[in-house]
DNA sequence: GCGAGGGTAAACAGAG
DNA sequence: ACTCTGTTTACCCTCG
């Protein structure tokens, strides 16, 4: 139908979407709360205005539809007069029944409107002023009716008028058939049903409701404003409120016309609610895509752009291998950890994984960006997911994070368990691995200390272990640069998503400021390695280099960075947090990372 | 197929 | 005797 052609889609974009996306929709969606102060932002007003526009558009289509229905029934419905003539008593009986049905319709409409209002308020699309009655029709009525709609309303009205004058008491609308066309029965019905409505439309017919409305908001009526009747399509000038009330009772009494208009408005509301539901669904899908997939049991338990998480587990890597290769190079890569992590990975899913024999695939051997790290630290703290880092790298980080760059074995253990939920289980296995690595790798030097033996890191030896293989991937470098910019907003998004999934939420401070300084160092470190390889592979490297490098002129390592070098920043970032469970261990201060590099 | 790097398991020894 | 720490060996896996 024609009403579907332009109005709906158009209104979709103009009103709801604009309203919801009015300001930082993605990042704010988690922050939208019912308790939002009224009129806090102009965007709210815009959303209400747009909403009214939607109503106009939808009212137009509904009105057109009503007109069509009327015309059709006027042509075909010639039997009812016969019936009325034969049984006037039955007609009276029908009147009562019809009134009941009508009031039910009105109640339904009222409920819909109220729900709609609540929804809008929740979404922050609409602000109800404290003193303003919660009447959803007001925004529509206040100067929002375009000429075309008014004309349609008048057409609806005139159609009914014609109907009445012809003596056809039957109604052309399914709703209006439940009503009477004469004024007398309508008044009766009002008396019989004083609680017929509270939405302001029908209240005008109810003396009791009227008086209540006056008491609460003297001279305030959703259908009256600026000396004009705001009944859709009316705009009759009323000098004062009393005359407005008279006008309401006389011109907008309970009759076919009024009920038809009510029905139109009801459908408008319904359309809006449908649209709102759609947009809610869309929003949810967006959030799900960007943050956390709420329920995806079959999703591969891959946290981060653990691209490198190929090393994580067989099941994980096999589950979604196709997503791995391109992930590291996409600017959105830092987001991925958040999306799949907390909700997807469960204890059972991770512990059903057998012995973990895997390592970094050089194919996907890309340093995890700093933004990943900043987010992943929270992820790994709460999700029992094996970090995609080698034991050696983790040990190194643990040691480098320490104030004195040395740790006892037990302190290394504690660091593991504190930073990674994964290492809170199967202690015998991984502890053995830690010891094994400490002894095996030359880079770990055991030093006799006053309090016993401590372990330190020989950076030179560590970096000798294996050359980095991320060479020739300029997009990676770009990604690392952009990832820094992503970090802060994504942290907020992460927290929102974590809150949504009932995951322990850490303060922004824990992930934010202390992290950033380390992130800078981390990025420098990553860039050092990456740039070196880029330089080695690409002869031309001088002017087009990474801006990061220009900003942070740090030394480029002699040795190519190990891919796991990327985790280096991890530890630096993670130091910002203190898990209450393991705080007894030691106080990890976030500190410059450069020492380990230098 | 080979070597490198990594993970896991286990045996062993020394110290507390 | 037990636990912790540290070393070493063996085996397996993945990847280039």
Automatic annotation (TrEMBL):
Residue ranges the UniProt entry marks as DNA-binding: 386-459
Entry keyword Metal-binding: yes
Origin superkingdom: Eukaryota
GO molecular function, one term: RNA polymerase II cis-regulatory region sequence-specific DNA binding
GO annotation, cellular component aspect: nucleus
Subcellular location, record wording: Nucleus
Keywords: DNA-binding, Metal-binding, Nucleus, Repressor, Transcription, Transcription regulation, Zinc, Zinc-finger
Biased composition (Basic and acidic residues): 207-219
Sequence segments annotated as region (Disordered): 1-44, 184-220, 311-343, 532-598
Fork-head domain span: 386-459
Primary location group: nucleus
Biased composition (Acidic residues): 588-598
Keyword Zinc belongs to the record: yes
Record's protein name: Forkhead box P1
Classification lineage: Eukaryota, Metazoa, Chordata, Craniata, Vertebrata
